[in-house]
Give the backbone structure.
Amino acid sequence: MVPASFSLVRRAVLSALVVLAVVVLASACASSSPESPSQPFELSLRFSLAGGEEATKCVYARVPGAPGEEVFLRGGLHELSPGAHHYLVYRTTVTEWRDDMTVPFECGEHDGAMRGVTTYVTGGQAARANADFPSAAALPLRGGEILLVQGHFLNASPAATDASVRVVLRLVGPSAVEHRAGLLRYYDPFIFVPPRGKASAQMRCTLERDIVMLSAGAHMHARGVHYEAYIDKPGEPRATTPFFTSDDWLHPSFFLGFERLPAGTSIRFRCDYASDRDEPVVQGLSAARDEMCMFNAFYYPAMEPGEEICADMHEVGNGQASCVDTVACLDRCPLTDRPDFASGSPYVGACWQKCVVDSCPGASAALFPLLTCADAKCRAECAAPGEACRACAAAKCATEQAACVSSTCAP
């Protein structure tokens, strides 16, 4: 009862999809200046954009300071030219600096230079922002570390224009920092909006440790018409009132303030869409063609990177299909629609996305463990649908199959 072999979305959330989230550094902040003098670190990206062109360009930048010495990002500002969809600043695995690394180059989301990114430092999509972290919290970096600056632009006019990103990061030493900050990055890889229709995408993620949330932000594309997020604390009823909402995909609103969240707290978020396109819209990278649904939040104390991502996503579907029915739906999808996250791609075919979106909220708790088991133990047998795949799953994933069969649609 399992579909052909794939690399599960859960693994993708721990690898490829880490580089997709967008958060504005300034949204985390309430204080007007750091507690000790800061060192400005300016990064910039400039290039020409033809009329009607959508492009993603990158440059590298090197963190000032003695090599290996720990420095902290206390706050900063950014300025984006018209047509910007977002900018992001990433940490990378690059260690050798070259003089040509400040020349802009093409950088698709998961190709070339993007394969060398680890996590991101900051980003945003508002035209301007300027603020600092509160409560002496800061993100750790290291002197000499090589960062990647990425800008994603869409020129809707017929005439060529100049695209630019200017970022000034305010760095301080360890003595000015009381709390090492981190960034929650929750990304929903399953979205399906029918032609000229309305739809929603949703996800629920659970924290593994106690944290203090400093801010939270939303991210959608052009079909996004409403966003809301909820906090469900352990031992308390599910929240019925969102702790923040946003109705403007291009200039999203943010939650600001201190919110103590104990381990076991769940964060639920939902994106609502209305499409005027004649073809379905699914999750993807293009701001013009595809959609996204994300929750991001600065917090402290920092956890390990793998704990900042929704590795055990739940309540992803918002339809009526059971776990068994969803597996059968996936089994009917074209092989080319299967996720291929092992290659570093965020691709999930439209058929897969629709099957998961059409599942009921309670299905994913049993669905993802079954698919994980099949991927780990029956990859060769499930290279294509058939009896060999079913037999392997029945023998090696019996517990997961039983859970799928007996699962209910209640969240």
Q: What stands out?
A: Residues 4-35 have pLDDT under 50 and may be disordered. Residues 364-377 form the longest helix (14 residues). Residues 318-406 form one domain.
